[in-house]
């Protein structure tokens, strides 16, 4: 990559949809209580994916990546942020 090459970043946040059982989130909630952190009623666990993209990449293209690979859209939702 040249120093002259322009790059963009996209941040994709993938979370389980509301109503989908989140056993990892429940395990985290339980562990927090065990460690003395009271008052945590629920935890949803997800993932963040950062993409380095060529200049000109669009949010629509990243959304297509999510639909085809990055998220299981049956049980997960995603949010794309171009940064």
UniProtKB/TrEMBL annotation:
Pathway: Purine metabolism; IMP biosynthesis via de novo pathway; 5-amino-1-(5-phospho-D-ribosyl)imidazole from N(2)-formyl-N(1)-(5-phospho-D-ribosyl)glycinamide: step 1/2
Keyword Nucleotide-binding assigned: yes
Protein's name in the database: Phosphoribosylformylglycinamidine synthase subunit PurS
Domain of life: Bacteria
Function: Part of the phosphoribosylformylglycinamidine synthase complex involved in the purines biosynthetic pathway. Catalyzes the ATP-dependent conversion of formylglycinamide ribonucleotide (FGAR) and glutamine to yield formylglycinamidine ribonucleotide (FGAM) and glutamate. The FGAM synthase complex is composed of three subunits. PurQ produces an ammonia molecule by converting glutamine to glutamate. PurL transfers the ammonia molecule to FGAR to form FGAM in an ATP-dependent manner.
Keywords assigned: ATP-binding, Cytoplasm, Ligase, Nucleotide-binding, Purine biosynthesis
EC numbers on record: 6.3.5.3
Source organism: Oceaniovalibus guishaninsula JLT2003
Transmembrane segments: none
Compartmental location: Cytoplasm
Keyword Ligase: yes
GO MF annotation: an example: ATP binding
Catalyses which reaction(s): N(2)-formyl-N(1)-(5-phospho-beta-D-ribosyl)glycinamide + L-glutamine + ATP + H2O = 2-formamido-N(1)-(5-O-phospho-beta-D-ribosyl)acetamidine + L-glutamate + ADP + phosphate + H(+)
Enzyme class of the recorded protein, top EC level: ligase
Assembly and interaction partners: Part of the FGAM synthase complex composed of 1 PurL, 1 PurQ and 2 PurS subunits.
Gene Ontology BP terms: 'de novo' IMP biosynthetic process
Family, as annotated: Belongs to the PurS family.
UniProt xrefs under InterPro entries: PurS, PurS-like_sf
HAMAP family: PurS (MF_01926)
GO cellular component, one term: cytoplasm
Lineage summary: Bacteria, Pseudomonadati, Pseudomonadota, Alphaproteobacteria, Rhodobacterales
